[in-house]
């Protein structure tokens, strides 16, 4: 849809840009054309052809992500997602030694800690309270932590070990079939007892993402020391298992270096299920597992000068979760979502566009009636007009009825699907938000617009992209991809396992997000006031 450029719009835009940032210089709309006798302001008598349709991304690369989904998420629009996680563990130093003079080292406590994303507020009395970020739902879950028995390789053997190994969202069975636990004596056995075997049900059968500050006290009486931790997953693990795995493993040479160690102890598998205390519960967190640790506390002998009796001292070994990791996702789609993906039409476009993060879906957008080869007679017609493009926006209206009360993504991301990279408008936008870095690139946009706390639309400015297309005959009218994104700053790509329509990768920011939105599409049956539209503000030469 085309609208007339006028001076009133110029004033509004100038004020808006100034409000965004006083430190940046922008090419404001109309600056180069006001008072130029060679141009007049005109309204075209026709509209561009836009075709937008759904595309399913069922299996996508999900190893070594910056943040991972973990938990169970029920969404009435898109369905149910179960997100599990597996990670290798890393020794702080190779070949740790444990002293045995008269008695073997003895593991006394094993603590797993993974911090959440949280914001602290300190009261007048010094007590801190926290608000958790990136948590959807607060239900109880059944959490089980197992030894991972599936070897995660650094490099792909089919590439002669020259290419990094990829792991995908559909590999749940690889970790399920190879999970190991503790036997009666703490030995590692297939399908053994989970390692978080505390009698405290909040650490396993009734686990919740708790916002409470964590206190850890060591020692007693006057020697007691209390350490505070920000909220996170904080669990006690099986002592006997780590006694055999770590202390005994060291004596057998299995901790000689990290390569040996990662083959011997292949890491942990975090499994989540519905809790018997909440069979329909929904609770999912975005977690940086890379910040997680396992602290193994133990006692060992220390030689005492001029004494044959050694002193028993407290020591600890801290393992980090800094090796290879995989986020595996299982998704049960709703009927509406399934039907929309199955009946997508690249010819007529779709009435509704379903954008879903993770192993979800995206939209493909063709402008100016481009064909499969990127050719467009309509584009050539517009090029011949010689317009000066002042602003161009794609505006997407949210289907509020379809979304209901489900959480909405704060941002969507439009990119060059052919070349798997951002549009030129992304690179030309230097605006930033120091408080919320995810909200940078304010002019390029894609940020949700809300009324009464619910989203109504997203607008993405593509002025430079359209200007280049119309001004330069050799500019390629590429397919555009549209996805939800966890952050506008994440523009790398993740591989698609089974590519269709030559889509071999999608933006990593979409893989990281558990959220989705439903937008009105481009099909003619969509009411004009809701239909996807391209708004172009321009001036026409005399």
Model description:
Strand 10 and strand 11 (188-190) form a beta hairpin. Strands 3, 4, 8, 9, 15, 16 and 19 form a seven-stranded antiparallel β-sheet that branches. With 542 residues, the chain is an alpha+beta fold. It contains ten helices and 31 strands. It is elongated and about 105 Å long. The longest helix is centred in the first third of the chain and has 14 residues, at 7-20. The chain has two domains: 7-61 and 334-541, no CATH class; 79-330, no CATH class. The protein starts with 6 loop residues before the first helix and ends with a strand. The relative contact order is 0.21.
Task: Put the structure in a nutshell.
It contains 10 helices and 31 strands. It has 542 residues and is α+β, with helices and mostly antiparallel strands. A hairpin with a 4-residue loop joins strand 23 and strand 24.
- Rounded to an integer in angstroms, the radius of gyration calculated over CA atoms is 28 Å
C-alpha end-to-end distance: 22 Å
**Strand proportion:** 35-45%
The helical percent reads 10-25%
The gross shape turns out to be elongated
Largest sheet: 7 strands, antiparallel
Structural class: alpha+beta
Tally of individual helices = 10
Mean pLDDT, all residues: 90
Number of strands: 31
The unreliable regions are: 1-40, 42-46
Q: Oligomer, anyone?
A: single chain
Question: How many domains is the backbone divided into?
Answer: 2
């Amino acid at each position: 849809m085309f609208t007339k450029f006028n001076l009133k719009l110029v004033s509004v835009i100038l004020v808006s840009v100034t409000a965004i940032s006083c430190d940046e210089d922008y090419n404001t709309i109309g600056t180069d054309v006001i008072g130029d006798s060679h141009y007049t302001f005109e309204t075209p008598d026709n509209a561009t052809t836009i075709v937008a349709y759904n595309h399913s991304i069922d299996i996508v690369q999900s190893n070594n992500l910056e943040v991972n989904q973990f938990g169970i998420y029920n969404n009435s629009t898109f369905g149910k997602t179960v997100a599990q996680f597996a990670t290798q563990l890393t020794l702080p130093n190779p070949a740790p030694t444990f002293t045995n003079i008269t008695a073997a080292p003895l593991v006394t406590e094993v603590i797993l800690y993974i911090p959440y994303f949280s914001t602290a507020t300190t009261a007048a009395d010094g007590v801190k309270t926290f608000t958790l970020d990136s948590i959807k739902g607060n239900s109880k879950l059944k959490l089980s932590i197992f030894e991972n028995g599936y070897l995660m390789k650094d490099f792909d053997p089919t590439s002669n070990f020259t290419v990094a190994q990829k792991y995908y969202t559909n590999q749940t069975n690889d970790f399920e079939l190879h999970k190991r636990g503790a036997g009666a004596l703490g030995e590692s056995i297939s399908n053994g007892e989970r390692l978080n075997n505390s009698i405290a049900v909040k650490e396993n059968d009734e686990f919740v993402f708790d916002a409470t500050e964590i206190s850890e006290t060591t020692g007693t009486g006057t020697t007691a020391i209390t350490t505070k931790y920000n909220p996170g997953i904080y669990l006690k693990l099986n002592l006997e298992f780590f006694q055999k795995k770590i202390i005994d493993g060291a004596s057998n040479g299995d901790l000689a270096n990290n390569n040996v160690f990662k083959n011997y102890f292949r890491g942990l598998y975090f499994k989540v299920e519905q809790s018997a205390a909440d069979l329909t519960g929904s609770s999912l967190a975005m977690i940086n597992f890379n910040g997680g640790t396992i602290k193994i506390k133990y006692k060992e002998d220390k030689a005492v000068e001029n004494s044959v009796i050694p002193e028993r001292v407290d020591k600890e070994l801290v393992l980090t979760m800094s090796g290879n990791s995989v986020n595996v996702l299982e998704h049960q789609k709703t009927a509406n979502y399934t039907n929309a993906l199955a009946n997508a039409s690249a010819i007529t476009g779709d009435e509704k566009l379903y954008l879903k993060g993770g192993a979800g879906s995206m939209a493909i957008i063709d402008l100016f009636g481009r064909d499969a080869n990127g050719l467009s007679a309509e584009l050539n017609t517009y090029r011949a007009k010689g317009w000066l493009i002042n602003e161009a926006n794609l505006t997407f209206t949210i289907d509020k009825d379809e979304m209901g009360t489900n959480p909405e993504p704060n941002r969507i991301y439009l990119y060059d699907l052919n070349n798997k990279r951002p549009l030129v408008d992304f690179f030309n936008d230097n605006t930033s938000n120091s408080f919320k870095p995810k909200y940078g690139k304010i002019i390029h946009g894609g940020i949700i617009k809300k009324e009464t706390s619910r989203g109504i639309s997203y607008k993405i400015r593509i002025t430079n992209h359209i200007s280049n297309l119309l001004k330069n005959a050799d500019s390629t009218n590429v397919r555009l991809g549209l996805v939800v994104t966890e952050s506008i700053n994440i523009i790398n790509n993740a591989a698609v396992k089974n590519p269709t329509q030559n889509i071999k990768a999608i933006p990593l920011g979409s893989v990281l997000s558990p959220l989705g939105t439903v937008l009105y599409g481009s099909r003619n049956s969509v009411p004009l006031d809701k239909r996807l539209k391209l708004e172009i503000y321009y001036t026409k030469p005399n």
